[in-house]
């Protein structure tokens, strides 16, 4: 527990109350990060960043004010408190605001969020990781015209949150990510692929796996072709599934979006919206999880929330504001990008419960279809319509990959996609705050050309 940050936050809350706030909340964030990138054998970018600041939310009646400063200096904090109160008094009352969250006694202390080896990682050690990624990729790309990029990012962060209703919490975390990208030129064709790992624990990182995977995938992506379109099965590899569900569905169960009528599942709470094979949990207390935390961005306790069970939509994701508005339990999903922003809503560890089989098995069982390794496209969050470019994928015929895909789109409505999940694999992978295996969609409209 960072007592220094808590002391600063508690003093700021007391000051806001003395100056007339009915309720006050102070969030402090402090982060030190390091990043290094290399291409082939040369470092092309390196940076170290230290940032600290404080965000102050004050409530006067049902009026809300917010201000922040990028220092932890006493004078600047006092000014931020005054500015927040001035903005609150000048704002329009929010009839839906009820209260900041209360303190709860049943906080779960999440394990595995801090690793001193990450905090103490030197630039020389980071460079060694990069060299291992590049050297492994080179072994697979011998005699080819290639370029290899690799990067390491680490962060060590602390946060503290205090409010006038008894919440007083602090926590420290570490994070590391490594990635490799292989670029190949061959017969006038240029292609690339990448892979990565991320963790809160240093020992989870395997540079050789990253280097081998990125190079192998780049080779598989050579000479892409278009195909004859139509309705056919789509296999989403874990990264593709994480893009579709981690963004395309997680955004739809954001309670704020549902309350505003901006979600394609706005009227579906308690209904069967997905295949029986799909179960999704948002787990904020998963040991060592990328999205794990003891408390959310308002200081409310994190928890495990069942989202879909037996295909039925069991819960939305809430912060204190939306939970009070709907008169339901807060799920502890308040989030904010930093001390400089107000709380919104996001997932913690958004997890698909694994089933049976893996990507290779699903491919072998497919007569004709496509694999989507990744896509950057999202559905229309109001209608659910999805038109997703396969950024990296393959055409399957008779249970075997025939070639990489070019200019190929998946067209389907998200409601149909959820209902048409035929298989859920056991090859789970962490992709940011999404943890998912491969998924098979029994059919979607494929266009190519």
Explain what this protein looks like in three dimensions.
The protein contains ten helices and 22 strands. The strands form four sheets. Strands 7, 14, 15, 16, 17, 18, 19 and 22 form an eight-stranded mixed β-sheet that branches. Strands 3-2-1-4-5-6 form a six-stranded antiparallel β-sheet. It has a six-stranded mixed β-sheet with strand order 10-9-8-13-21-20, covered by helices on one side. The mean pLDDT is 96. It folds into two domains: 116-220, PmbA/TldD fold, CATH 3.30.2290.10; 230-448, no CATH class. The relative contact order is 0.14. The longest helix has 18 residues, at 123-140. Helix content is 23%, strand content 37%. By secondary structure, it is of the alpha+beta class. Helix 4 (123-140) packs parallel to helix 5. It has helices at residues 3-18, 74-90, 116-119, 123-140, 207-220, 238-246, 255-259, 320-326, 359-364, 414-419; strands at residues 23-39, 42-60, 63-69, 145-163, 168-186, 189-199, 230-236, 280-283, 304-309, 312-313, 334-335, 344-345, 350-352, 368-374, 385-389, 392-397, 400-404, 408-413, 421-424, 429-431, 434-436, 439-448. The N and C termini lie far apart (57 Å).
């Amino acid at each position: 527990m960072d007592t220094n940050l808590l002391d600063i936050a508690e003093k700021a809350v007391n000051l806001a109350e003395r100056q007339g706030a009915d309720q006050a909340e102070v969030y402090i964030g402090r982060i030190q990060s390091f990043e290094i990138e290399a291409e082939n054998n040369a470092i092309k970018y390196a940076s170290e960043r230290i940032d600290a600041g404080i965000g102050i939310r004050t409530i006067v009646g049902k009026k809300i004010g917010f201000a922040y400063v990028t220092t932890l200096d006493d004078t600047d904090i006092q000014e931020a408190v005054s500015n927040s109160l001035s903005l609150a008094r000048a704002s329009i009352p929010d009839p839906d605001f009820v209260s900041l969250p209360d303190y709860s006694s049943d906080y779960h202390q999440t394990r595995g969020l801090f690793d001193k080896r990450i905090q103490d990682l030197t630039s020389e050690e980071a460079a060694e990781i990069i060299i291992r990624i590049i050297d492994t990729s080179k072994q697979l790309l011998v005699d080819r015209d290639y370029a290899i990029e690799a990067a390491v990012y680490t962060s060590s962060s602390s946060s503290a949150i205090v409010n006038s209703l008894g919440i007083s919490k602090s926590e420290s975390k570490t994070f590391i990510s490594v990635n490799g990208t292989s670029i190949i030129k061959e017969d006038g064709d240029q292609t690339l692929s990448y892979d990565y790992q991320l963790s809160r624990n240093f020992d989870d990182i395997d540079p050789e796996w990253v280097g081998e995977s990125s190079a192998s995938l780049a080779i598989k992506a050579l000479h892409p072709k278009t195909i004859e379109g139509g309705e056919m099965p789509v296999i989403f590899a874990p990264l593709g599934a994480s893009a579709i569900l981690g963004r395309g569905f997680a955004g739809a169960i954001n309670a704020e979006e549902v309350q505003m009528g901006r979600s394609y599942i706005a009227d579906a709470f308690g209904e069967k919206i997905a295949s029986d094979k799909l179960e999704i949990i948002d787990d904020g207390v998963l040991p060592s999880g990328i999205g794990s935390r003891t408390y959310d961005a308002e200081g409310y306790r994190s928890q495990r929330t069942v989202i879909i069970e037996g295909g039925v939509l069991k819960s939305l994701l809430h912060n204190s504001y939306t939970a009070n508005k709907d008169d339901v339990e807060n799920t502890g999903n308040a989030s904010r990008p930093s001390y400089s922003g107000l709380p919104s809503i996001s997932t913690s560890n958004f997890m698909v419960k694994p089933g049976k089989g893996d990507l290779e098995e699903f491919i072998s069982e497919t007569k004709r279809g496509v694999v989507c390794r990744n896509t950057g496209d999202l559905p229309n969050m109001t209608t659910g319509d999805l038109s997703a470019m396969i950024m990296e994928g393959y055409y399957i015929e008779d249970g075997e990959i025939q070639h990489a895909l070019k200019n190929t789109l998946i067209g389907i409505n998200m409601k149909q996609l959820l209902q048409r999940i035929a298989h859920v694999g056991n090859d789970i992978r962490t992709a940011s705050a999404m943890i998912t295996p491969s998924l098979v969609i029994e059919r979607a409209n494929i266009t190519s050309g």
